[in-house]
């Protein structure tokens, strides 16, 4: 589903998908300060370093911009063409 169809997505940022599903709230893509764009709804995982330099994992679900042409690789990773 694209965010522009309804201009809103479920939103959460947690350690994993299960926690995220429990805590998600409605996000208005064009006005929410945590929105990463307005073209699509998406879920993704990532890693970042906290203030102590430790690597942490996060799960994000919400509005994003998806301007590129994406495709799935054989190993289920996403790439840009």
Number of domains: 1
**Mean pLDDT across every amino acid position:** 82
Count the DSSP helices: 2
Strand order in the largest sheet: 2-1-4-3
Give helix % range. Answer: 10-25%
- Low-confidence blocks of residues: none
Number of strands: 6
The radius of gyration computed from the alpha-carbon positions, rounded to a whole number of angstroms, is: 14 Å
Q: Class by helix and strand content?
A: mainly beta
Structural description of this entry:
This protein has 81 residues and is mainly beta. It has helices spanning 3-6, 17-23, and strands spanning 8-14, 25-28, 40-49, 55-64, 70-72, 78-80. The two termini are 21 Å apart. Strand 5 (70-72) and strand 6 form a beta hairpin. The protein has 2 helices and 6 strands, in the order αβαβββββ.
Please describe the topology of this protein:
Blueprint: H1 3-6, E1 8-14, H2 17-23, E2 25-28, E3 40-49, E4 55-64, E5 70-72, E6 78-80
Could you name the key traits of this structure?
single chain, 81 residues, mainly beta, 4-stranded antiparallel β-sheet, two-stranded antiparallel ribbon, 14% helix
């Amino acid at each position: 589903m694209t965010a522009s169809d309804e201009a809103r997505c479920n939103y959460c940022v947690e350690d994993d998908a299960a926690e995220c599903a429990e805590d998600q709230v409605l996000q208005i893509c064009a006005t929410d300060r945590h929105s990463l764009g307005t073209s699509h709804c998406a879920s993704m995982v990532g890693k970042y370093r906290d203030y102590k330099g430790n690597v942490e994992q996060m799960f994000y679900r919400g509005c994003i911009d998806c301007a590129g042409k994406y495709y799935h690789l054989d190993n289920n990773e996403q790439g840009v063409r």
